[in-house]
Amino acid sequence: MAAILDFQNGGCRKSKIPLSWLLNDLEFRFWCPVVRFFGIENPHLRGPCTQSAQQVAQSCHLHNRDEMTSAQNNMLAVLESNEVLEAMAKFDERKEAKSPLFKFVRRYMRMIMLIYTFIRATRDGQFELHLSSLDEMCIYFFAHDKQKYARLAPRYLAEMKALKMTDPGIYQEFMDGNFSVHKNEIPFCAVGVDHALEHINRIMKVTGGLVGITQNASARERFFSEK
Q: Distances from the Cα of 211 to the Cαs of 8, 31, 205, 207, 214, in angstroms?
């Protein structure tokens, strides 16, 4: 943030531009491509896309899984029938060739959407989506020099994709959504295994957990049997 402040107008500190103004400007630049795509270059797409998005939002407020699925399928049909993704790809190609800032913003938006997709796969227990989104994320591990992720993620993907042949039973369990931990029946609330283990660690470290009973074998056994 300090670098951005120093860069803007030869130094925001010198011109005394409020930080809130700068953040509002960055937010405007973030949403500007979307507004231009639907509002200026493709106004005929705005109506059906807005309507289908509102239907998805309303179904989420009702907490009805069948209605959410129906609304999502309807939105996908709208996007496909109107060729929205194809139009947006052409729009990006034209603008990215002219503006480095536009190229940066759109690539950042795609990266964030990819992260959201990965989170959705975990929370919904969608194993194939989990693998495909992680596969797409690998390019960012290399680009940002995340050496451990760059080395281990491809190996993990290779092992998981071979699981259907090496261990069909576990593969079927993962396809059923059991690669993530479902602590209740509420949709979209599953967590990753590492996240669930942190919950267990928390339970053990507070009062009523393992505190003070680690040297008592019968107390430890009773604690784990109850959990």
A: 53, 50, 6, 6, 7
